[in-house]
Write a structure and sequence with these properties.
This protein is an all-beta fold. The protein has strands spanning 3-5, 25-26, 34-36, 43-46, 55-58, 78-79, 316-318, 325-327, 336-341, 344-347, 350-351, 354-364, 367-376, 381-382, 388-391, 405-413, 423-428, 434-441, 444-448, 460-468.
Length: 470
C-alpha cells in the first residue's frame, strides 16, 4: 500500500520527518511531492544530498544518521505541523560531548528589532490551563567530583562595548520580563508575578542560597534593585545602608514582634520628625532636634566629667515652652526622686506603741523635702525622763553645723508642754538621719523633749520641712 509522504530536509544537518497526506511543506516557493514505497520497521529515510532523492535504508547505529555538512537555504522554509505533531531533537541516547549544544543559532543583525530566535505561543484552551511560552529545565543526576562546578538553568548576556556617538537614551536589558493579567470579569483570585524565584540549598559544607542575587557597579548611580511599589519581606532583611528619601515615604515597624535593632556603634539619624506611638519607649540615648516628641522620653541623670581644654563641665537644660535655663555647677549632678520613709519616736529605754506612722519625700538635686505623721496607739513606758528623737530620714544630712534642716509641726495633739516651754522646735542636725525635738524658752536655752512629754496614748504629731543632703 502506497502512502504519499512530503519530505523537507533543510533545517539541520539531517532531519527525517514523515507527514500525513494533509500536511504541506513549502520550500523555495514550490511544493515538492515525491511518491515513496512504505519502508519497513527497521528502515529510516535518509537524505541523499543535492540533486539526489532520499532513500530508505537500514539504521546501523543507536541514533539517526548524521550528515557531514548541512544544506544551505536560499529561501525561508515553512513547516506546517498537524495536531499533535512536533519537531524533536534528541541528544540523550548517546551523551553529547560537543560544546555548541544540540541546537546552535547564530545571527549577525543588520536590522532594527531583529531576533536570533523568535518564539510565539498562543493559548486557546479554557479550563485547567497550564501553558509555557518556553520551558527550560537542567537536571544533573551524576555525582560531582573534583572542585569548582557551575550550572546555569538560563544564562543570558548582553554586551555593548563601543565608543558610541549617538545622542538620546540608550537602554540595555540583560533580561526584560513583563506579565499582564487584566480584562477578567470574574471574582476569582488573580496572582500575577513579573518574576518568581526560589533557591533551595544544602546544609552540607558551607552553603548559601540566594533567591535573587543582584549587583550594579560602574555607573553614576547604581541600583542593584529598584522597586516601584510596596516591598514585603517576611524574613530578616540585612541592610548595610538605607536611605528613605523625601516626599510621603515612611519607614514603619508594625505591631507584634517586629523591631528595629541598631547595633553598637551604629546610629539612626533623623533629620525631620521622630513619631513615637503609644506603648513605645526610648530606652537608649536619643539626640533630639528642636521638634518635641509626642511621648515624654525617660531621662537619665547626667554624670558630669572633669573639665578639659576640649570639654565642658556643666550641663544646661532648656525648657522650650518658657525658655528657662538651669545651669549646674562644677562637680554637681541634677536628679529628681520621690519616695516614702518611716518616722519613729526613739528614746533610750523608752517603749513607744505607734499606730499610723509614715512619711513622704521629694529630692531635687541635694535638697530633700519631707512630710511625716506619727500617731500613738498606747501609753509610752520605760525611762520617760530620757530625750526623744524622730528617726528614719531617707538621706543623711550635709556635714555642716551651720546648715541645719528646718522642720515644723503642722498638726499636734495631746503633747505635754513643760511649764517654761514656748514652742516645739524640730530640726535636722549636721551629718544625721534623725530629727531633734526641743522646746524653745524665753531668754533661756532650749530644753530637750522627753518621754514624759509624749507619754499619752493619743499623741498626734504631723510635720513637714526640708534639709540639705550630703
Amino acid at each position: 500500500m502506497k502512502k504519499n509522504i512530503l519530505i523537507f530536509l533543510v533545517i539541520m544537518s539531517f532531519i527525517s520527518v514523515s507527514y500525513a497526506k494533509s500536511d504541506t511543506v513549502v520550500y523555495g516557493g514550490f511544493v515538492p511531492s515525491i511518491l515513496y514505497q512504505a519502508g519497513t520497521t527497521a528502515q529510516i529515510l535518509v537524505g541523499g544530498g543535492a540533486g539526489v532523492n532520499p532513500v530508505w535504508t537500514t539504521s546501523t547505529g543507536t541514533g539517526a544518521p548524521v550528515r557531514a555538512a548541512g544544506p544551505t537555504l536560499t529561501g525561508s522554509p515553512i513547516a506546517l505541523f498537524g495536531v499533535g505533531n512536533y519537531l524533536l531533537f534528541d541528544g540523550r541516547t548517546t551523551p553529547h560531548t560537543g560544546l555548541d549544544g544540540l541546537v546552535k543559532v547564530q545571527l549577525t543583525s543588520a536590522a532594527t528589532n531583529n531576533r536570533a530566535l523568535d518564539i510565539d505561543t498562543i493559548g486557546t484552551s479554557t479550563t485547567g490551563v497550564i501553558q509555557y511560552g518556553t520551558l527550560n529545565t537542567l537536571v544533573h543526576h551524576t555525582v560531582l567530583t573534583g572542585t569548582n562546578h557551575t550550572m546555569y538553568g538560563d544564562y543570558t548576556g548582553v554586551t555593548k562595548d563601543q565608543a558610541d556617538t549617538s545622542v538620546g537614551t540608550t537602554t540595555i536589558y540583560g533580561k526584560y520580563v513583563t506579565a499582564a493579567n487584566t480584562g477578567s470579569t470574574d471574582a476569582g483570585t488573580k496572582n500575577t508575578y513579573g518574576g518568581w524565584f526560589t533557591a533551595t540549598g544544602d546544609t552540607a559544607g558551607t552553603s548559601t542560597a540566594y533567591g535573587i542575587y543582584a549587583a550594579a557597579t560602574g555607573a553614576d548611580t547604581n541600583w542593584a534593585g529598584y522597586f516601584n511599589g510596596n516591598t514585603n519581606t517576611t524574613g530578616t532583611a540585612t541592610i548595610n545602608s538605607a536611605v528613605i528619601t523625601g516626599g510621603s515615604n515612611t519607614f514603619n515597624v508594625t505591631n507584634g514582634s517586629a523591631s528595629l535593632d541598631v547595633a553598637a556603634g551604629a546610629a539612626v539619624n533623623i533629620d525631620a520628625s521622630l513619631n513615637v506611638t503609644a506603648a513605645t519607649t526610648l530606652d537608649e540615648a536619643v539626640a533630639m532636634s528642636s521638634k518635641a516628641p509626642k511621648e515624654t522620653p525617660t531621662l537619665v541623670t547626667p554624670v558630669l566629667g572633669v573639665a578639659t581644654a576640649t570639654s565642658i563641665n556643666k550641663v544646661t537644660i532648656t525648657q522650650p515652652a518658657t525658655g528657662a535655663t538651669l545651669t549646674i555647677a562644677d562637680g554637681k549632678t541634677l536628679g529628681y526622686e520621690e519616695g516614702t520613709w518611716t518616722p519613729n519616736f526613739v528614746g533610750t529605754d523608752i517603749v513607744f506603741t505607734l499606730g499610723q506612722h509614715a512619711g513622704l519625700y521629694t529630692k531635687i538635686g541635694n535638697v530633700v523635702y519631707i512630710w511625716g505623721w506619727i500617731e500613738a496607739s498606747a501609753t509610752a513606758t520605760g525611762t520617760l525622763a530620757n530625750s526623744v528623737t524622730i528617726t528614719g530620714l531617707p538621706f543623711t544630712s550635709l556635714n555642716n553645723a551651720r546648715a541645719l534642716g528646718l522642720v515644723r509641726p503642722t498638726n499636734q495633739s495631746i503633747i505635754n508642754y513643760p511649764a517654761s516651754g514656748l514652742e516645739l522646735l524640730m530640726r535636722v542636725n549636721s551629718n544625721s538621719t534623725v530629727i531633734s525635738l526641743v522646746w524653745t524658752r524665753d531668754n533661756a536655752n532650749v530644753l530637750v523633749v522627753t518621754g514624759t512629754d509624749l507619754v499619752d496614748a493619743a499623741v498626734i504629731l504631723y510635720f513637714s520641712g526640708f534639709y540639705i543632703a550630703a
